[in-house]
Specification:
Blueprint lengths: L1 H8 L22 E6 L7 H10 L8 E7 L4 E6 L2 H11 L9 H4 L10 E5 L1
Antiparallel strand pairs: 1-3, 1-4, 2-3
Length: 121
């Protein structure tokens, strides 16, 4: 039934108070929300932050609000400008993340570990 399908889509997410921040609509002008898909098993928010930092994307300067959904293997972040969003997409779309997980042990055989970066509305 349609009701049961809608119920299956709902999930409870818990985020620590330190991770929450209010963003006024005036400061949100030009920000771009991004989703990273196919993040390897074993990754967490800290490993994603390290990947971004290694490429010169410092949290608070180039992006904010990094979250990792372990169940779906998605990472979410907000690029602070259109230019930063374009740079993040250029650096990470189609890339294999290899800090942990099967990509480190079998780099040629795990095509599912190729990250896809998407813009969110």
């Amino acid at each position: 039934s349609p009701d049961s399908a809608a119920e299956e889509e709902l999930r409870r997410v818990s985020i620590s108070a330190e991770r929450l921040a209010c963003v006024s609509s005036s400061s949100a002008t030009g920000v771009v929300r991004l989703r990273l898909r196919n993040v390897p098993d074993g990754y967490d928010t800290e490993l994603l932050r390290e990947e971004l930092d290694d490429e010169g994307f410092v949290e608070g300067e180039r992006f904010s609000g990094l979250l990792f959904d372990r169940e779906r293997r998605f990472g979410y972040l907000t690029a602070l400008t259109e230019r930063f969003a374009t740079q993040i997409i250029a650096n990470f779309d189609g890339r294999r993340l290899e800090r942990c997980g099967p990509g480190r042990l079998m780099p040629d055989s795990v095509l599912a570990q190729i990250v896809k970066v998407e813009r969110l509305p």
